[in-house]
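Please go through the protein record below and see whether the fold suits the sequence. Record follows.
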Amino acid sequence: MEVKEITKDLAYPIVYDNHYSKVMPRLTKHYLGIFDENKLVGVLTLGWGTQPKGTINKLFPGCTSDDYYEIGKMCMLEEMPRNSESQMLSLVIRWMKRNTDKKFLYTWADGIVGKPGYVYQAANFMYGGFIWTDIYVGPDGEKIHPRSSKDLLKENAKMMKKEKLFWLTSDFMKMKKIRRIKGKQFRYIYPLTKTARKMLKQSTVEWNLNYPKHEDLQWKDATDKGKSMILDEMPEMDLSVVNVNSKNVNSHLINNPLAALLE
């Protein structure tokens, strides 16, 4: 396999058909295609999350967005062998060392949808602990990120006769049959230089190889304000449903010459 930089128009059909989340990150710098005998079999995007400088500076005081890329999307065709994603990561790391001056490759494993990050563990990423994160789950099973809930928040605020809300209220969620779910996101990093590897020891978090497993996954139902309830298993979600998230997803289809492939 080999890695080549490609256009968003080539990358998006692969992401749409093969990634569990159709929502694309907004701050994407590179779309990398993974080719097997000239066939595009995988995509990995590099860029930043919603707080490019704050994310890295919190972990390594003094660092900025110039010092790292974050993995936005990573997926491969289902027909590829099981270890292909680890090979893809190795190729991308090699590409970054040759084509960028970044110190780190950073990413999250989405434990809230049952992913401890085994692919990063197999690629020898360092583990840096977890944070609790929030999502909403719609009545149709749609996974809704709080950043995608602007229209719901406006409707909720109007109902409450308030100018603005930052989180959906319990009464509104119950009326709409929406649940607020808390789960873990697991933090991973790969140092790209000797200097970066030394910096790990000076980080504000401990980086190690004590990787999380499936038994470390946890979920809480926080729909009722002040009454967070631990769940016995992962809440049911239908990751193929795109309703509230349709604005983001559809924006990537407009003027895409390959849009017909997604129908």
